[in-house]
Amino acid sequence: MSVVRAEWIKLRSVRGRLIALIAAAVAMVVFSVFSAAGERRHCSGPTGCPSLVVGPGGQAVVDSYEFVDRPLAGDGTLTVRVSSLAGAQPWAKAGLLITASTEPGSSYAAVMVAAGHGVRFQYDYTHDVSGPQDPPGAPAARWLRLVRAGDTVTGYASADGSAWTRIGAARLSGAAGVVRAGMFVTSPQNADLTEHPFVTSGAVLPTLATAAFSDLTADGAWPAANWTGRTVGPPDDSYPVLTGGSQRLGDGSLQISGSGDIAPAVGGVEGTGVTIDHTLAGGFVALILVIAVGTLSATSEYRRGLIRTTLAATPRRGRVLAAKAVVIGGSTFLLMVSAAALSLVLGKRVLLANHDLLYPATVAAQARVVVGTAGLIAVAAVVALALGVVFRRSGAAITVAVVAIVLPYILFQALPTGASEWLLRVTPTAALAIQQTLPVYRQVAIGYTPVNGYYPLAPWAGFAVLCTYGVATLALAAWLLGRRDA
Amino acid sequence: MRRDYIEALCGEWTKARTVASTAWHLVAAVASGIGLSVVVCALARAGIGAGQDSTKSALSGLQLAQAPLALCGVQLITGEYRSGLIHTSLAAVPRRTMFVAAKVTVILGLTLAAATVTMAGALLVTRTEPNPHVVLSATLHVIYVGILSSGVGFLVRDTAFADALVLGVLYVLPLVSRLR
């Protein structure tokens, strides 16, 4: 304990180092806010700035589709055959949908044919259940049925319209009374992107899918009303869509063209919003300053010969190193937790004032990002301290620490996705995964790449990679400290 | 006037030449730069088809080589402050602008020489047809690294903080200002 105290006194009594630590915290907040302020969204369209559509689960969602529906007052069944679906996108969807309301972001359940993914039952944007596999040679399942009983909706599929397979069921929220039920078609955006070093070029374009529905039957508590076609979606350009529509064909079937998606929103170039890690960009500035302080707390003792006094006072050298690591890591962590929390709070305000679409994140996820970012910077300080003991020269130690932690982050943008994911698995930069808040959804086909904010490792696994480097450099430093003359 | 400058230049050149760290920094820059370029080009060729700018990949090693180059520039200045040689230097060259000019000239010369060797080596080893625009912008970037490290060295005077500041500007500012 007295060793820790001694190291704490050394840290706080060198004015330059104390100022540098506090400057790191201040710089983190200032640069984060400036960086967030730079993400101003310019809204030129007549409808103004796009709004964020939030689903019943609290996630940002996309909710744009063409719908031909009727009100359903009580329990009821809807059956239809999708006789054709033409759409270039594998996730173009056509089927039956029951929703609490046609306001974007409402709770819903749907059974559908996806152009490249067979029959699916999806509900409340994030849930996706695969239907029966089409047996080879046999006709594909193209008959769909939705059954509403109370607030529960169950989806069925059939190849012939007589033998039905249950796929899944969902309880809708806010769907106790009259709901809207009918046929829908939608087709997600198509990203035609090419990776180059440092830039990704190309365009994200809307697509349109057209489906024909026949043999429609509706049983149950349907109030007298006509089937009416409508385009569901926010009245702005938050998701690229083409104009859809519906018409009755000569053979009595109904043809619907739709554009958009009913799915969770995604990050990166194919998303419209920003994630909360955009409020912590100043962390990199803090990282550099903290690395300098960590290195100096080792190298300055060597430069001035204080290390001999230190080791005379505490002959057990491993303990000296441990005490230094605890003091530099602990004080950095405490400072950075406050700085990161303040950056997050201020940055969110700035982003919202700039009309940026800030994707919501749970309190637990936000706490993980704040604590993890502070932990990342604190571990980097300890790595720098250990490197300072190893090299005994500040220049070399600082360079190795900065290059090892920051350079992979710059390089991965110059590399193809496979190589950059590999880089973010094995280098200390893997710890940045702690800032990822958007999960991967297999029902949305985008590039889940590091450039788009999706890291190859889980948040705490990535953090563990950095910690492994920290432990390894500390062990090396302890070994060298015990072996060499001071 | 002109002779004074050449004499100051000779003095600076002798100081830079006779410090072992200078050579080590430059060798590290060339080796790490060519090494990284080779790795990036190999990965890029394995992963991306035709149509991309291969000169950028071939010169991406400068992203790493700039660190030793910047440290070399910082070291040549802050080393004098640490050892107290700065007093002798300023006694020998009393006109301080002259002293700074000579120092920066030597640092820029060394930086550009090492960067030229790195770029030529990287382009030769990776067998890349150079795109003159990319080579020019890389050369300008190296000049910026030399001037930046000299300026920060004179301002901060302490090796550790000058290193941290220069590396921060080179590696971190692009990240913070990056439009995401």
Automatic annotation (TrEMBL), chain A:
Keywords, sorted A to Z: Membrane, Transmembrane, Transmembrane helix
Alphabetical list of Gene3D superfamilies matching this protein: 2.60.120.200
Ranges annotated as spanning the membrane: 280-300, 321-347, 367-389, 396-415, 460-481
Domain of life, source organism: Bacteria
Name the UniProt record assigns to this protein: DUF1349 domain-containing protein
TrEMBL record, chain B:
Keywords, alphabetical: Membrane, Transmembrane, Transmembrane helix
Organism domain of life: Bacteria
Entry's transmembrane regions: 23-46, 98-125, 134-154, 160-177
Protein name: Uncharacterized protein
